[in-house]
């Protein structure tokens, strides 16, 4: 699968990062989603992160625009 869909933003299709074939900068912070589905034995990655029970409150576009990372 190269994309995912979220009912919160039905007009958007989100590509998986592994489907993007251009160089990306190293992220300063991770966004971890679906914490409510994570088994107890699974550890979160080390480093700065925000954790959300389901999806975060912003679309991918809103998140990137808010950080000045959006490219038209």
Quaternary state of this entry equals single chain
Query: Strand order, biggest sheet?
Result: 1-2
Number of helices: 1
Approximate shape: globular
Give the averaged pLDDT, no decimals. 84
Please write the string of helix (H) and strand (E) elements. EEEEH
Helix content, binned percent: under 10%
Q: Find the count of extended strands (DSSP E, 2+ residues).
A: 4
Residue windows where pLDDT falls under 50 for at least 5 positions: none
Provide the gyration radius in Å.
13 Å
Question: What is the CA-CA span between the terminal residues?
Answer: 24 Å
| Class derived from helix and strand content | mainly beta
Taken as a percent bin, the fraction of beta residues is 5-15%
Described by strand count, sense and barrel closure, the largest sheet is:
2 strands, antiparallel
Quick structural gist:
The chain has 72 residues and is mainly β. It is built from one helix and four strands.
């Amino acid at each position: 699968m190269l994309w995912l869909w979220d009912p919160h933003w039905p007009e958007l299709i989100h590509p998986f990062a592994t489907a993007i074939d251009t160089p990306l900068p190293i992220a300063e912070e991770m966004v971890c989603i679906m914490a409510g589905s994570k088994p107890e034995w699974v550890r979160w990655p080390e480093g700065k992160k925000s954790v959300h029970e389901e999806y975060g409150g912003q679309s991918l576009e809103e998140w990137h625009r808010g950080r000045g990372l959006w490219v038209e």
